[in-house]
Structures are given as C-alpha cells and as structure tokens.
C-alpha cells in the first residue's frame, strides 16, 4: 500500500492538473485500504477475504458552479479524462452561492499532532484464523450455548490524503483490528442470539479472543426465556453499547445541513439547556489510539477537543464551510469527506462524560423499569424528536436487574429524554462514540 507521503502526492497531482485546466479552485481526496478478514464456524474455516482499493476524488469550482468526480483508475490517461469530465460537469452545474473551499486563513499549518493510530504491524491470515477460532471456542464453552453463527477476526491498514488548490496538503494512515463472535443459546423456538465484539487501532490493545467469546456466550444465555412487560410509564436504563445511539440523534440534529434546512428538533437551541445539569458531551479528535482520531478535518481545517454539551447547554453546531457560510458563522472543524461529493459533517471520538452515580445506585431506586440491551427499528423523527424503538433487555424490579424481557417498545421525545437523562460512572472507551450507562425517567414502555 502507498505511504502517506505518496498518497498526498497523488491528491496534490490531480489538483495541479485541474488548476492547469483552468478551474478557479479544486480539492482532491485520495483513499487507499488493504484488509484481511477471516471467519470460522463450528471450528471450521468458513471464509477468507482480502480486499485492496485505491480511490481518488476530485472536486472543482468554476465561479459558483462545482462538480465532483471519482475514479479507481489511476493511470495518467484516466486522470486526464477525469479532470476533463469534472470541468465539463462544473460548467453545466447550477450556481451555489455557499459552495467553496474552506477559508484559507483557517487551514491547518505546521506539524500534525501525534495520534498513534497506525501500529504498522503485519498480521498473517493464520494468526487471524487462530484468533477467530479461539473467540468462537470460548463462546461455545459457555454452558447453555447450543450453536454458533461464527467467529471472526480482521486486520486492515488505510491511508487518507487531502490536497487543495489554496495551499493545503496533508495525509495520515491508520490501522484497525477487530474480533467478534456470535452464538445462539437454547433450543427450538426459545433460541436467543447475542454477540461479542471489540476493535482497536493497535493489535496490542485488542481484547483477548477468550474475553470476546465468553462475553458473547454469556450474553446469549442471559437472554433465554424472555417474558413480556406491561405497558406503563417507567425509567429506562440504556446499556452503553446501545446508549451511544442517543448521541447519534444529537449530532444529526445539530449538523449544519439540518440547521440550514430547518429540519432539526433542536433548531434555535444553540446556547440553551438541552440536557440535564451536569451532563457534558465532548468530541476529542486527538485521543491517542482513538478509533476516530484524525489530525485535520475533511476540508483541511485543524481539529481540537471541544465540548458540544457543557453542563447541559448546547455549545456549538457541527459546521462545514458551506453550512457555516449560510449561517453566517465559522466552520467548526467537523467537515467529513469521502472520495465522492461535497463535504458533510461528522464527529470524531464523541463521548458523554461519566456521571457521579454508580450503576448500582442509578438502578437501586427503580421499583419497576427496563434495562435495554438491544434496539430494533429506526423510529425517530429528526424534525420533531419523536422517538419510538423496539427493544429487548431485562426487567428492573425493586432496584435489581431480574429476568429477561423482549418484544416491547420504548417511546418518548428526544427533547424530554435528554433533559431527563442521568449518566452513571462506568464510562469506557470501546467504540467510536461512547457513553456510560444512562437512565432516562418517564419514558413510555409498551409491552406485547
């Protein structure tokens, strides 16, 4: 695979070609990836996958008209044709008064921060197979597990580069490793499935296959013989692996395009209290080994840790340059860019800070409630904030998690849910977006 410097040269070269062709401005993205994936089932090798890709995306501007094109053919003739096609498309495109490159004065200068997100280790397919086997074996060894959907292990390396016609060129590489196991407990119509998964930038930071597999097996067995729950208003407690989705609804609502289109339930909430006192939500692109760490954003702007929610108050929108111009504000360093199309926005290592209440205390005064470990469906209205999701989990009775329950719905409005949310102390950084266990009072639970 190309080095970061070579990737940066590829992006800069296509921008130079576009400028030579007469465009007013241009930027380009080069992305390359190489990965190995191994899956096993019931102790036998099931699939071996190897993928490699190199893609180049070019965006050009002629006045206020723009066009984006991409290719995986990197031959000189193909690149010349790509530039010619982009210029022809831009001449025919409608004008957009907000489109353009990021402000030149805001571009990242100097040395990029050291994020340690590429361990440069090579892992053989045989090693990945052994890891997958061990994860599945550990899951099958849990009493009550009766079948397997498989174990898997993966390793990949990627490089990403951005170049612009107004003076930015940068690149970075990442490594990624994953381990998983998915198993079934029980027999016949009473079977239950669950999984274990872990990913890391460094192989040395990956959990052991035995831990991943054991967790998968124990989760599946714990779900056996689920009951039903009556319909009522009650507290709902989110397990961290599903609670992170709540932050996804938040970031969608404060993304620049949602605000400019006025399609957000948090419209006009900037500077207002949208979460309970004490709740802080931060974005940290500089987190060492972070699954979403990056040295600059998708437009070449510097990135830095920031509070999106500070003590319950919404501190910022998530803005790329186009949405910032439309709102009369400055871009926030959250631009995201693929090889095709214009930039959007994204967060990096987003997390809700740990609260001050242990999980046992958070649950301890709930007379009757539910602990949710799985959410089903996409019943969220981004305009009104109305929220309704199918769910499975465990009943909470007299301050204790008791028996499994399934086939129920939890519902509310995200505005009310955010204001009634309490985080526990058990924050762990396991995913790209992380939250501790959270409790939301006053939700509607509809049983089957």
From TrEMBL:
Which Pfam families does the record cross-reference, listed alphabetically? Answer: PmbA_TldD_1st, PmbA_TldD_2nd, PmbA_TldD_3rd
Q: Boundaries of each Metalloprotease TldD/E C-terminal domain copy? A: 232-447
- The record places domain Metalloprotease TldD/E N-terminal at 26-90
In the UniProt record, the signal sequence range is none
- Residue ranges of every copy of the Metalloprotease TldD/E central domain listed in the record: 119-224
At the top level, the lineage of the source is Bacteria
* PANTHER family for this protein: METALLOPROTEASE PMBA
Family according to the record = Belongs to the peptidase U62 family.
Query: Which protein are we looking at?
Result: TldD/PmbA family protein
Species: Sphingomonas olei
